[in-house]
Structure formats: structure tokens, C-alpha cells
Amino acid sequence: MPAPDLLPLAPVPVSAGPPTVVAEAPYRVVERERGLLATFRVLRRGLLPMMHLFDAMGGDMARVRTRIRTSVLLRHPDLIRALLVEHDAAFTKSEGLRLAKDVLGEGLLTSEPPFHTRQRRLVLPAFHHQKLRGYAEAMVGAADETAAAWADGQPLAMDAEMNRLALVIAGRTLFSAEIADEASDISRAIHTAMALFETRAQNPLTPILRRLPLASNRRFWRALGDLDETVLRLIAERRASHESKDDLLQMLLDAQDEDGSAMTDRQVRDEAMTLLMAGHETTAGALAWTWMLLAQHPDVRQRLFDEVDDVLAGRAPTFDDAKALPYTRAVFAEAMRLCPPAWAVGREATRDVSLAPGVDIRRGETVLFAPLFLHRDPRFWDDPEAFRPERFLDKTERHKFAYVPFSAGRRGCIGEQFAWTEGLLVIAALARHWRFESDGPAPEFFGSVTLRPSAPIRLTAHRRRS
Ligand code: HEM
User: Fold this and answer.
1) How many other CB atoms are there within 10 angstroms of residue 50's CB atom?
2) Burial of 355: CB neighbours in 10 Å, binned 0-12, 13-18, 19+
3) Which of 16, 78, 246, 439 has the maximal Cβ count within 10 Å?
4) Which atom of ligand 1 is nearest to the CA of 286?
5) Domain positions in the chain
6) Which CATH superfamily is domain 91-347+402-463 in?
7) Which pTM was predicted?
């Protein structure tokens, strides 16, 4: 099977000498000091090249000290488990996510315990198995509409197509509303706010610049104001209508704590905005990269078609079919191994803590792990660069924390099962009718908030059957 030409980056030239080894066993810990100028030079190239350089230091944990901040990259699954499970109480979200509070407020992704613990308890029932069953119809309906709109031989920008589809699904399952319509205020406001947020996220000076009266800041706050207005209007309309809908917004409005308290409009707004933002671009990215990889691997694609044709026998997929599509599931899992939408995850230590013997973290340090690199680490994966879905079908024992596209523990993705359901049903619904071919190399990765292509993923749609 050919190796995909879909790779992280050309090796990053490492200008500094080898890092200092500060611990050797049981975990190898390496360190390096970096001058501010050198740090800014690396940062200017982008977050992903910076993380690549960090990863290239090797070891099970790599630490870079600058005069402003010390950052640590965990490169071993044991240490990632220690961060997310055993010692999670010693960490808060990192600076990047604190910036996201400008958009998401105190939603699940950005809030901290004890408020987060209460909110997670309130939001969790919205993702119950029975609820997912209800959302499945909206997922397949939206995918079928997308499939019906394409013409045989049509060139597509697959990332944009999947983004729009995921936004339609988010709008319907969250608000029972059509928000992806290009002309709609909410669609415009989402795109503007997201684009400006991403520019801010790439700029190391944003924590200082974010409140200054700059034109870009004014545009950002205006777009956010528009988005707020629409979401708060949707909440007010639902409260006023006394009509009960079968969507995530209804679950948020109806949720009650043990003492009978419910969420305020602001809290519902923050959770709804979080589900909308955290839920649509991640799933869209995973799907777009999946189609790219399938186009590059016709043998895998044929095996997926065989499974989908066999299980569906010409009808549209349903919630229960997701369980009967193990190969399709393995394809989606393998695409998220090579192209994890949440490509890097960060925390900040609130106190000194030891993750393992010799692996000590100091208060205030930023602690990161990067699924993009971890998922390709030859210490934990055979033939890591190959797109080989079968690896998720065989029973080979693998370290559970070597595969973490949804993170894990108390701050793990609450939408994970939603994303699997959406991913599998959309793949099955589209694969029934369409085959996508690529006639060029895959674009490179661009490490934004999620893992984006640096240029559109261009594929051509070929009708399999109508
Ligand atoms: C392929 C799709 C998705 C991927 C790869 C993904 C990945 C992740 C990851 C890695 C985190 C942890 C972030 C951190 O620790 O800083 C997370 C958290 C979260 N995700 Fe997802 N996600 C996906 C889909 C979704 C969907 C569909 C929803 C909602 C409908 C969602 C809602 C959330 C929320 C609310 C959190 C915060 C959870 C908490 O801290 O309690 N995600 N996601």
C-alpha cells in the first residue's frame, strides 16, 4: 500500500545543539533554554512548526525554558494519562483556551471546577445514547441533501463542503434551526468571529493586545456581538414559545441540578456557543481528511464501499447501522490518527506536581501533548505513516493513551459519541452515492485551533449511482 503523501511537515531544521538530559529512567526528560528572540523567530513560522521543533527534542518529556514561560511537551502515553486522569486536579486549561473565553464565556471547554463539574453534570444527558439516536436522523438528512446537490464530475473543495455540512448538522441538532445558509446572519457572524479568533490565537502578543482599540479588535467584538445577539434571541424565542423541541438547546434549558436550579440565559448561551464551535469544525475537519485519504487509497475506499453497500443494501443509513460498519469506523479512526483535528492540547500547572518518578512539573508551567505527533510515534505505532485502517480491527494490544484524538478524563470530549455517530453516518450516506478522486497532492497541514489544510482539499465527485 502506498504511503500517503499527507505528512505533517518537512523536518524542521534544529539550530540549537542537543538538549540537556535531566532524567534517564524510567522516563527520559530533556530540557533546553531558549532566548526570547529565537522563540519569536520560531513562533512567527506558526504554532505547528513550533510544536514540531519541540517534538524533535525527543525524550518522554521535553521542556523549553524562556524568560517569560516554561513549556513542557509530554511524549509518552503514561505521562499523558497521569496528566489527564491521576493528576488532573493540579492543572487548569492553558492560556490559549483562556483566550477562547472571549468567544465561549464560561462554557464547558473553558470553565474550571467546581463550576465546570456542575455544568458537565447538567450537559451530559444531552449526549445520552437515546438522544444521539434522535440526532442521527438530522445527520443523515443533511448528508443526503449535500449528496443530492453535487453533479457528476464536479470539482469540490472538500474542507469547505464538510464545514458547511457540519454546520447544518450543528444548527439542526443544537437549535432546530437553519444556520448554515450563507446569507444568514449567524453563518456570517460565526465565520467572521472564527477567522478573527484564529488570527488572535496565532499571535503571541494577543493577551496584551486583545483589549486595545485596534481595527481588528473592533471587527472581532462586533462579529461576536452579532453572534451573541442571534444565540440569545434563539434562547429567548424558545423560552417564550413554551414549545419543547428534541434538540440540544432544549436539553440545556430543561437541565436541572439536584437542588432544582437551572442555567441562566448567559450560561445556556455559553454552553450552546461552546457546543456549536467545539462540535462543528472538528468533525468537519476529520471528515474532510478522511475523504482525502480515501481518494489516495482506492483499495481502502473499495473495501469501505463494499461494507456500506452490503449493510445498507440501497437504503439510507440509520443510527443502528453505525454499529454494523466496523471497517468504516476503522477508516474514520485511522484518519483521526493521522490527522487529529485537536492536534495539540494544553494545560497549566496550578502547583508543583510529579507525574511519575523523575518527571516533575513546576507551578505555572504550560504542559502540552500533541496527538498529531504522538499518533505517529514509531515507539507506539507500527508503520506509523501508513494509512492502514486494519490496525484498528486487529486485536493488537496498544497503550490506550497512545491514541487520544478526543483527549480523556474529566475534561475529555463530551461530544465524542456524537462525533463518531456523525462521522460514520455522514461517510456512509455520502459513500452510497459518491466516489471522490484527487488529482494532486494533499495540501500541507496548517495548525490553527484545529488541524486545517493550508490550501483547499480539492477532490472531484464521481457518481457511483443515483
Ligand atoms: C472529531 C470531532 C471532535 C474532536 C476530534 C474533538 C476533540 C476534543 C478534545 C481533544 C477535547 C479536549 C480539549 C481539552 O482538553 O482542552 C474536546 C473537548 C470538548 N468537546 Fe470535542 N471533539 C470533537 C467533536 C465534538 C462535538 C461533536 C462536540 C459537541 C457537539 C464537542 C464538544 C466538546 C466540548 C463541550 C468539550 C469540552 C469538554 C469539557 O471540558 O468538559 N466535541 N473535544
Assistant:
1) 20
2) buried
3) 78
4) 1
5) 91-347+402-463
6) Cytochrome P450 (1.10.630.10)
7) 0.94
